[in-house]
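A quick aside before the break. I want you to see a complete sequence-to-structure record at least once, exactly as it would be stored in a machine-readable document. Don't worry about memorizing anything.
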Amino acid sequence: MARRPRVHYEGAIYHVIARGNNRERVFEAEEEKGKYLEILADYKKRYDFQLYAYVIMDNHVHLLLQVGKDPLAKIMQGIQQRYTQHYNLHQKHSGHVFEQRYKAFICEKESYLMALICYIHQNPVRASMLEGVDYRWSSHLSYVRRVPGLVNVEFILNTLSTNTEEAREQYLILVGAAVDKLEYSVENEHGKETQKTLLQAKMEQSRTKLTWEQLVEKITVEEEISQEKLVGKCRIRKVVAARKRLIYEALKRDLMTRTQLAKELQIDPANITRIFQELTNN
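That is the input. The structure line, written in tokens, reads:
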């Protein structure tokens, strides 16, 4: 039976999953992930769609995008064909690179958008990748740093708060809480793609209070240092300043006592008190 055409209407938001043929690797090197982003940016200008999130894994891609007048099929055909040509040329490969039928699920409720974004950004965590949520080839850091460009972060962050810092904190809370599984029924009995469940996510977690782990992640991302240096004994000036900020915010938010912080960071409790007083008076 012939496949039914995908639903299209101007303004439709799709969660797209494109996998390598037979689930094989389609991005053999970092440069190829960069090339896919370059192609994505080119077609975004050509077809004027909005991109809200992405992650490029070794053998598949997730995109969350909103189409304009041009249908998703036209957009994805162009992106996938151009990357296939690039891959085949550089890898001495022939034939299909991606599965012929990418998956695309319409997101009909705005309330699901943040859950989907968090799910997409958590892909490297579920894959046990070393960088975790800070994986370079996703749009997570664009949200943390509120960087305009390929991804429209403002539309989503403004739904969380009009205050820049508060919106970023709420995003970090949600991306830390989201997760679990995203299940889809590819076809129902009529041969039509349908959505089984969108996301099992803990969206009711407090939107104002960070956990210790989330505070550590927030500071490592914003200060662009590793967690090992932040909570270790590194004496680089930038790291020391970030560690002082960590101590101050942890105490101010009542995440830990001075004794607990001293044990966690292996610092004398008297120094914890001194740092807190120093930053309080500044």
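Two observations worth writing down. The first helix runs from residue 30 to 47. The two ends are 71 Å apart (CA to CA). We'll return to this after the break.
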